[in-house]
Amino acid sequence: MDGTSPDFTPHGKHLIAGDWVAGETRFTSEPAHGPAHDYSVGTPDLVDRACRAAEDAFWTYGYTTREQRAVFLGKIADEIEARGAAITAIGTSETGLPEARLEGERGRTTGQLRLFASHIRKGDYLDIRHDQALPDRQPLARPELFMMQRPIGPVAVFGASNFPLAFSTAGGDTAAALAAGCPVVVKGHSAHPGTGEIVAEAIHAAIVACDMPAGVFSLIQGGKRDVGQALVQHPLIKAVGFTGSLGGGRALFDLCAQRPEPIPFFGELGSVNPMFILEQASSARGEEIGTGWAGSLTMGAGQFCTNPGIAVVAKGAAGDAFVKSAAAALQDVAPQKMLTDGIAAAYRDGKARFDARNAVRPVLTTDPEGRMATPNLYETDAENYLRDQSLGEEVFGPLGLVVRVSDRAEMEHLARGFEGQLTATIQMDGGDAEDARRLLPILERKAGRLLVNGFPTGVEVADTMVHGGPYPASTNFGATSVGTLSIRRFLRPVCYQNVPADVLPGDLA
Ligand code: NAP
């Protein structure tokens, strides 16, 4: 626990361009523990007000210097830290996540904000290009050309339930958009409205301290689906950053595509993150890999988009040892509280889907109750897996499926059959290099991040990180939602032809 005060009682209002606004109707939060609170339900009218203010703010904020925005991002991080204990208290109450996890996530959130501050100070992200004028070129002279990335305008952000800080109100999407020079309108996640409110309070304090336009940030609480729909359809919104489920993401993505002016929808959706265990690794370390896999599969009650839900291993004794040790480790995992009643119900439904399949064999089955998750493990073979694509759909929670293959060729065939993924993992030893070289080009076409001899849970926030991948892992394979490259989502290249130096934007002059 840090030295700040843990006291915070949410007032339940929206933050619209600097004003705390109460709605006419309220919804009640469903915390994992502690008191429930009432929150204002968002409305399309409030969405309109926030988007108009964001557009007004863009004419100032979009033209601030990189240094001004870097100072602002740093100030948001400071204000979050100043409320550290209160954020942890309300966050743990709403989500059931342990204190240490919330504190770690807060560090990641402030770290992201500061990383973006230093990233924009360096300026490389502007990707400035210059073609000199060639007045004597024949048959045609060439004018002087500059190119630079510019912010796109107001951005809508939808946070995820499972990262109430790092992928939510002041999370990676918000940090990237603000760094780029784009005002942000956040649709608060109804699983953690109080955490959203206190983080919005921190952003508001930074706006005032840095004398930024009030419309640069708004938070509209949810409570009804029409808020999110109105937000992605608002004509002043120029892009959407979304982290959440495939169903929700696809619905909002389709709305963006159907707009009179379609806009990019950067949705980071679910994934089963397959892990391929090669022959030598399986013989030498099958048991150890089984234990490690079980740990990754159950971390945070399995509520990670990078949860490695599927393991692929050969039939035979070495593969059996992997399955046995994974099952033994899973058996020892105590029940864990899930983020919401809805997510817990979806987990039970996902398990029931597996139980109903003749093509899968239960290895370890448990009966999760209420909001508690307990691990489940199933096994099938490649033929059955490829025949029933629903086995490749994500079950959000600690459920694992082992797919047994006959040989290397079948493993490669299976790998080709996977849909787009956030990550793919290879477990290999020295003698597996030839097999790994054959598998890697297949997996490159499937996933945004490829790992060897590790587990995909735990995403480094770095310049090289790619948290994205081909659909359905994300709706835009050219983008990442983690790391500094994520700023590119909210920028647009503009070419300046023959523009005098004293008219060019500051970064080019
Ligand atoms: P979710 O149910 O899709 O909700 C995400 C946000 O979208 C919420 O604000 C929700 O509003 C809104 N929403 C969902 N469907 C909507 C619709 N049809 N119309 C309007 N708004 C809609 O996802 P979640 O429960 O937060 O997260 C769990 C899922 O997210 C898992 O599948 C997980 O794998 C995935 N996830 C992916 C990543 C990644 O980086 N790829 C990271 C974390 C989680 P309400 O608040 O009203 O529900």
TrEMBL record:
Protein name according to UniProt: 2,5-dioxovalerate dehydrogenase
Origin: domain of life: Bacteria
Keywords, alphabetical: Oxidoreductase
GO terms for MF: oxidoreductase activity, acting on the aldehyde or oxo group of donors, NAD or NADP as acceptor
Keyword presence, Oxidoreductase: yes
Entry-linked InterPro entries: Ald_DH/histidinol_DH, Ald_DH_N, Aldehyde_DH_dom, Aldehyde_DH_Superfamily, ALDH_KGSADH
The Aldehyde dehydrogenase domain, residue ranges: 37-334
UniProt keyword Oxidoreductase present: yes
